[in-house]
Amino acid sequence: MTLMTADAYIDSLRQMKKRVFMFGDEIEDPTDHPMIQPSVNAVCMTYELSHHTDHEALLTVESSLTGEKINRFTHLHQGTDDLVQKVKMLRLLGQCTGCCFQRCVGMDSFNALDIVTTKMDQALGTEYNVRFREYLKHVQAEDLVVDGCMTDPKGNRGLPPAEQSDPDLFVRIIDENNEGITIRGAKVHQTGAINSHEILVMPTRSLKEADEDYAVACAIPADDEGILYVYGRQASDTRKLEGGNIDVGNIRFGGHEAVVIFNDVFVPWEHVFMSGEYPYAGELVETFAAYHRSSYGGCKVGVGDVLIGATKLIAKYHGVENASHIKDKLVEMIHLNETLYACGLACSTEGARTSSGTYLVDMTLANICKLNVTRFPYQIASIAQDIAGGLMVTMPSEKDFSHPEVGPLLKKYLVGAEPYPTEWRQRILRLIENLTLGLGAVGYLTESMHGAGSPMAQRIMLSRLADLEHKEKLAAAIAGINDH
């Protein structure tokens, strides 16, 4: 069992034969494509840091299944310390990449599946957890990137899967035999799917008996011949094709999402972890969501650290870093960011052991964490844009700054405070633009709103999890109402 290196990871992707479509064309080498390469670089950081002396203890852990040293992204949490270390790891990676690094959904899916398949086996006499753990041993041994694949297109949101006019708008089982099952459908918003070794399919919502065929969880090689990937557009994405490294803002890293289409994909039984057990679909979704909502208390905070740093720098380049109102706004950014981190740590330290032995975060606090994430990054971004100023969105292109005639004039007139070069100001403005409006805003803002469920999903969970009757009794007792 070996921890993969970043170079080995890239080589492993190049050996895969995925069918990837972008801008109406099928692309031959997605790993080296300039649109996708920044997201590959971001995943590479999850491998690089696992070999880094200063961060090895955070990125690696002893497997509960084999006793071997593994990447934490493939681990089943064995205590609250594991849950806390996960949040710290995600913050570190956000700080190092300034974007989504794409392995969190897989990690959170592993832990959710371990808990729910154990419950299924205990109640139904199935062997799903045995299968799942054998599969996870393989993932750990090879240090694989696994795309947790949950969100279906959904069609008419007011109708359950079985009542849709097109039955394929949720992934479903269309056939099964002694060898396995065949699935059909699609998943959307799949972060890092093109950079993954495996696809781990899960249901996207609670299901009823009529939806039995949609209760499916299974693992599939990412280059299965029946899988198609369609790259999702992002704001300002074609800047990556222009050849420079300033206008993209984040000069090395980025993320990507894709529509993943399953054209009658066969899955052998050993890689099937739910097949028709509809009563457990909702629990799997909620368990995964709790883990993933707590994850945002780490990764979004790390990216927030980058944005706060960029805002401090642009204030310096503008010559206003010592203004009292600028200092106060930076303090507000810090307050918001650290509040998110506190929520991520809180739901982790309050986690508890489940019947599988895997620890689950406190679900109430995890939903509080994510509900804050739907708000605070937007407030942080607003302050960053306030301090950055209008040049962030009106600045001429990198090529204009290199033009023999207008370039020197732009550098003269768009300079900020001495002794900082115009190019430094240019680069930081583009980074703030990236994180608050452009490519980086996909992961930092929109994903903060809708990833792991939009705000109403958290509010629904909080209304279910909060014990209001207990709070009523506390108030009645304090007030002297004895017969309440």
SSE arrangement:
Layout: H1 6-14, E1 19-22, E2 25-27, H2 37-48, H3 56-59, E3 60-62, E4 69-71, H4 80-97, H5 104-124, H6 128-142, E5 146-149, E6 172-176, E7 180-191, E8 198-201, E9 216-221, E10 227-231, E11 257-268, E12 272-275, H7 281-318, H8 324-349, E13 352-353, E14 359-360, H9 363-373, H10 376-388, H11 391-394, H12 398-402, H13 406-413, H14 422-436, H15 439-450, H16 455-465, H17 468-479
Parallel strand pairs: 1-10, 5-8
Antiparallel strand pairs: 1-2, 3-4, 6-7, 7-11, 8-9, 9-12, 10-11, 13-14
Helix pairs in contact: 1-2, 4-7, 4-8, 5-6, 5-7, 7-8, 7-9, 7-10, 7-14, 8-9, 8-10, 9-16, 10-14, 14-15
The main sheet comes to: 6 strands, mixed
- CATH homologous group name of the domain at 283-467: Butyryl-CoA Dehydrogenase, subunit A, domain 3
Principal-axis shape = globular
Mean pLDDT score:
97
